[in-house]
Design a protein that fits this description.
Rossmann fold, 15 helices, 438 residues, elongated, five-stranded parallel β-sheet, three-stranded antiparallel β-sheet, 53% helix, alpha/beta, 3 domains
Length: 438
């Protein structure tokens, strides 16, 4: 399924970008004046790029099922990040070139021109949107991101919707290239209608319908260790969710956390028509308080998301690598009936006490005839299991296996680097990094 979906999705994405960028350039050429110099012309073109890039960002935030199944939410979130920084630079450069262009044309200082333009309400709204984009981008830089809780970072990203409103209003009054003729008006507002329609449908309408249909509730809360807890969720007709082992949901617990706080937790057991299970480590406000959820509490789930499933396999033999709490999707994959006996599981933890769900993993591995390696201790010296020679010694036929890896960033990065060194084909490598945004 994934193998068929990916080429079509790549073609669809490439065609969408090429066709729309071509139309954007035609609109720029057809608009002609009022840009009176090179600075004004560049500023106007950058404005068109900015507006189009914002529609792309909206489509990425909408989490279209076609793209999710083909590429996985993790890769889409990477695209979201780079698209966001592209929006940032375009948002800074577009007004800068426009202001310089007007200043040179009117032969007045740049600052005087900027103040005069900002007194126009549509321009002022655009500048406010630029300021919000700068805030979002600044807090998305890795140094700043590490200092924020997931809940705070997610709340900041909700400013994106304010930016969209301000940006659209700005385009209505200032976007002369969009109103050249009937075709440009139909095209431009049709593009925005498609993007916003996808966003509202994917992030609001579909989740609301699904949650009304399935009526999710907390069935049990089971502590797995001092800081890890499993939440069992029941509901009606859960098979209609079409969730798969390895996927995740965005979870909200009304009454336990604020409505805008949603956390991505993987399924830690293969889903069925009666129950779902998530297992989380208490690292944030929401996850730390899960053990206080009362039985019967309402649950709002958005998803399932992710292509970290056995549908992505290219080989019958499999290697599953988990680190820390990253064991949750690995544990659910191990339970998937499609997983064969030719499976190796590597579970990396600092201490034996940190190996949550280990009893379940041992039972599942034994039931399938899979090999399980639990590796403990600090990394360094002779204990470097993901150093390429050591990993190859542990799994000699690694190049003939699909490899699934989920764990802390440092572990995942080390494993991916080792797999490249060992020349494991990229199509056989599947990683879940949980960089979800927006």
């Amino acid at each position: 399924m994934i193998a068929v979906a990916q080429p079509f999705a790549r073609f669809a994405v490439g065609a969408f970008l090429i066709v729309n960028l071509a139309i954007v350039h035609l609109m720029f050429v057809a608009a002609g004046p009022p840009a009176h110099n090179m600075f004004g012309q560049v500023g106007r073109l950058l404005g068109l790029y900015l507006a189009f890039t914002m529609t792309v960002q909206v489509l990425l935030v909408a989490r279209l099922p076609l793209l999710d199944r083909a590429f996985g939410m993790d890769r889409l979130t990477g695209w979201h990040r780079w698209t966001g920084f592209t929006v940032f630079w375009l948002a800074v450069l577009h007004p800068a070139f426009v202001v310089v262009g007007f200043a040179r044309y009117d032969r007045v200082p740049v600052f005087t021109t900027a103040v005069a333009l900002s007194r126009q309400i549509p321009v002022l709204l655009g500048l406010i949107a630029v300021g919000l984009i700068v805030v979002i981008a600044g807090l998305s830089v890795r140094i700043a991101r590490r200092r924020l809780s997931y809940e705070t970072w997610h709340a900041v990203h909700l400013l994106l919707y304010v930016v969209l409103v301000l940006g659209i209003v700005h385009q209505v009054y200032e976007g002369t290239a969009f109103t050249i003729n009937l075709f440009t008006r139909i095209y431009w507002w049709g593009l925005w209608a498609f993007a916003l329609g996808a966003l509202v449908t994917g992030r609001l309408i579909v989740p609301l319908i699904r949650n009304l249909r399935h009526r999710l509730r907390v069935a049990a809360v089971v502590p797995e260790s001092d800081d890890v807890v499993s939440v069992h969720v029941t509901g009606r007709d859960l098979d209609r969710l079409q969730a798969r082992a390895g996927q995740f949901f965005l979870w909200r617990f009304p009454g336990h956390n604020r409505w805008w706080q949603a956390n991505p937790f993987s399924l830690s057991a293969a889903p069925n028509d009666r129950s779902l299970r998530l297992t989380a480590k208490g690292v944030g406000t929401t996850s730390a308080g899960l053990r206080d959820l009362p039985v019967g509490a309402r649950v709002f789930a958005e998803g399932p998301y992710g292509a970290f499933t056995l549908a992505a396999r290219t080989r019958p033999a499999t290697l599953l690598i988990a680190g820390g709490i990253g064991v949750t999707p690995i544990r659910s994959l191990l339970e998937d009936p499609e997983l064969g006996a030719d499976t190796v599981v590597i579970y990396r933890v600092r201490r034996g006490a940190d190996a949550v769900l280990l009893g379940e993993i041992r039972n599942l591995a034994a039931g399938k005839g899979a090999r399980l390696h639990v590796i403990t201790g600090r990394t360094g010296g002779d204990n470097q299991p993901f150093h390429p020679p050591n990993l190859h010694r542990l799994v000699p036929d690694i190049t003939g296996r699909d490899v699934y890896v989920c764990g802390p960033h440092a572990l995942t990065t080390a494993v991916l680097a080792a797999l490249r060194t060992l020349k494991v084909p990229s199509r056989q490598v599947h990683a879940e990094l949980f960089r979800l945004a927006g």
